[in-house]
């Protein structure tokens, strides 16, 4: 009990003098050192994704695809434009960024793909990614991906986790629905 | 019923995707089988940062009603920081002072500020939720610190049983808080998981401490020999916990520095310690606590007047230890051994005579010790 009392005395009174002199280094961290420059590293924001775009089972040739990518420090994100070929096939390439994330920052990147325009009803793919490696948002190889605008959105576990990370109108052979 | 190691870790990681302006991310997160699909959840909004520097708004956690195996349970899942450019979260981490929590205990001022800004939402959610089981409080890093305060609050202000799961969480409060929260939540209901080489759980340094009181928690051996920022990543915790039960995670030998006799042996040992080893910090803090306890029992009442005025923590501890040097041999010996051990570990000149150990020298040793600890933690985290 005496020891408890002591800690309250030491602790509470230190509120007033925490930044008073060098002794404050015991319980405070110098901000300028804490905010020091962190070395830049490569983060995969979105892994490649390829498949066929359909509406009611029929390919959508020459359709416009918009991919919005966001990541730490760029919440607004970037929008990239792609087109399907004559048979409705599309290929979205990998996107990487060099980032300097401070030491406690958890990497979070999101990829949202729309058809024609960025309206909710046009969304065919949404995934979040929490580690920088390639294919970490969807670990199993995606084979036979088809995205039909007429299909409902489903929530999918793209990686081995109790928490899903994908919402999509697309279907593929190894998909694991939530 | 507790949440398994991997499920609690998955939730602590998954919540990082959620933020206030992203309803799709919230919908996906809440599709996890642990949650009920019937109840509208609440996204907690925290005001992060200090009034003196800068403030920002960001989603910081999720309240959710349990479902499936967790019918009648409630989950409060908090996340650490995702801010890259806005330094507001780091302000929270750096503003290390002590204040009184909503439950009347001395805690970290920054974490307390963050938790208090979410408390109205938590209170509102709990009042409306259908709770027949435990309230599970979960978080990684800063989220773990906030989860600790949430668990403490729920345990004192409601009749619901509480379970607390933290991963690589920093220290939230001083000895008093740690002791009281351990009693309130229950030692067996606290799952504090940390890699032995994760530097975050070792900050803020003494007099901050980790809960549960007198327990090493669930520590995981790391292959690295030095403190490393990589050991703090949530992905690394998930990899360490995969396919393990709590019993398996806990299946490591008791840490020797938890025993007074081992601390005495360490102090008496001629094997000089190196401050570059992660284990050194556990021994150094255990030894400092052990010696302070011995001295305070004798001199506590004479300290009251000494402590009035503007003094730093280093000053106060130096005053106490110096008083200890002038007490009976069975106490002063430990003070002397401690200071010599720390001097050596810090690479400072070890004084030959007892008289050479002055209050000023003790203060310098303590300041250097804490600065070195903070510096090591920062370096390890920066070199990810």
From TrEMBL, chain B:
Gene3D superfamilies: alpha/beta hydrolase
InterPro entries referenced in this protein's UniProt entry, alphabetically: AB_hydrolase_fold, Fungal_lipase-type, Sec_MonoDiacylglyc_Lipase
Domain Fungal lipase-type, first and last residues per copy: 75-204
Database matches in Pfam families: Lipase_3
Highest taxon above the source species: Bacteria
Family annotation (PANTHER family): ALPHA/BETA-HYDROLASES SUPERFAMILY PROTEIN (PTHR45856), FUNGAL LIPASE-LIKE DOMAIN-CONTAINING PROTEIN (PTHR45856:SF24)
Protein name: Lipase family protein
């Amino acid at each position: 009990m005496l020891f408890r009392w002591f800690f309250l005395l030491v602790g509470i009174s230190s509120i007033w003098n925490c930044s008073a002199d060098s002794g404050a280094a015991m319980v405070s961290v110098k901000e300028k050192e804490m905010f020091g420059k962190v070395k830049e590293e490569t983060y995969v924001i979105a892994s490649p994704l390829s498949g066929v775009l359909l509406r009611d089972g029929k390919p959508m040739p020459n359709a416009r695809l918009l991919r919005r990518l966001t990541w730490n420090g760029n919440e607004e994100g970037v929008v990239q434009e792609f087109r399907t070929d004559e048979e409705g096939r599309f290929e979205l390439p990998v996107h990487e960024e060099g980032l300097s994330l401070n030491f406690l920052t958890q990497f979070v990147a999101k990829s949202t793909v729309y058809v024609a325009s960025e309206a909710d009803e046009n969304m065919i793919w949404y995934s979040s990614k929490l580690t920088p490696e390639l294919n970490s948002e969807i670990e199993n190889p995606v084979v036979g991906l088809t995205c039909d605008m007429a299909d409902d959105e489903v929530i999918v576990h793209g990686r081995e986790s109790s928490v899903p990370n994908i919402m999509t109108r697309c279907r593929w052979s190894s998909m694991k629905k939530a | 019923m507790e949440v398994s190691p991997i499920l609690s870790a998955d939730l602590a990681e998954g919540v990082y995707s959620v933020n206030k302006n992203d309803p799709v991310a919230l919908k996906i997160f809440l599709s996890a089988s642990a949650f009920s699909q019937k109840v509208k959840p609440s996204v907690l909004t925290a005001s992060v940062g200090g009034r003196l520097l800068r403030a920002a708004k960001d989603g910081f956690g999720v309240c959710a009603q349990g479902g499936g195996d967790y019918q009648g349970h409630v989950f409060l899942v908090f996340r650490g920081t995702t801010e890259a450019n806005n330094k507001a979260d780091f302000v929270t981490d750096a503003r290390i002072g002590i204040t009184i929590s909503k439950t009347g205990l001395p805690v970290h001022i920054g974490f307390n500020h963050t938790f208090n800004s979410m408390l109205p939402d938590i209170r509102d959610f709990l009042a409306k939720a259908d709770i027949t089981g435990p309230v599970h409080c979960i978080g990684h890093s800063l989220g773990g610190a906030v989860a600790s305060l949430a668990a403490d609050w729920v345990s004192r202000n409601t009749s619901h049983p509480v379970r607390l799961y933290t991963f690589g969480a920093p220290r939230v409060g001083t000895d008093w808080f740690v002791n009281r929260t351990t009693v309130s939540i229950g030692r067996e209901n606290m799952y504090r998981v940390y890699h032995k080489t994760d530097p975050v759980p070792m900050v803020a340094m003494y007099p901050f401490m980790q809960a549960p009181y007198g327990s090493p928690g669930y520590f995981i051996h790391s292959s690295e020999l030095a403190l490393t920022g990589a050991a703090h990543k949530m992905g690394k915790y998930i990899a360490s916990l995969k396919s393990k039960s709590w019993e398996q995670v806990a299946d490591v030998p008791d840490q020797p520095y938890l025993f007074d006799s081992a601390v005495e042996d360490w102090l008496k040992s001629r094997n000089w310690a190196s401050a570059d080893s992660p284990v050194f910090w556990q021994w150094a803090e255990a030894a400092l606590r052990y010696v302070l306890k011995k001295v305070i029992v004798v001199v506590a009442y004479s300290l009251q007047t000494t402590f009035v005025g503007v003094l730093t923590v280093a000053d106060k501890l130096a005053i106490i230890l110096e008083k200890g040097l002038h007490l009976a041999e069975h106490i002063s010996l430990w003070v002397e051994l401690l200071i010599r051990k720390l001097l050596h570990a810090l690479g400072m000149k070890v004084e030959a005579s007892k008289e050479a150990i002055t209050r000023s020298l003790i203060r310098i040793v303590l300041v250097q010790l804490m600065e070195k600890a903070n510096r090591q933690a920062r370096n390890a985290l920066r070199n990810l």
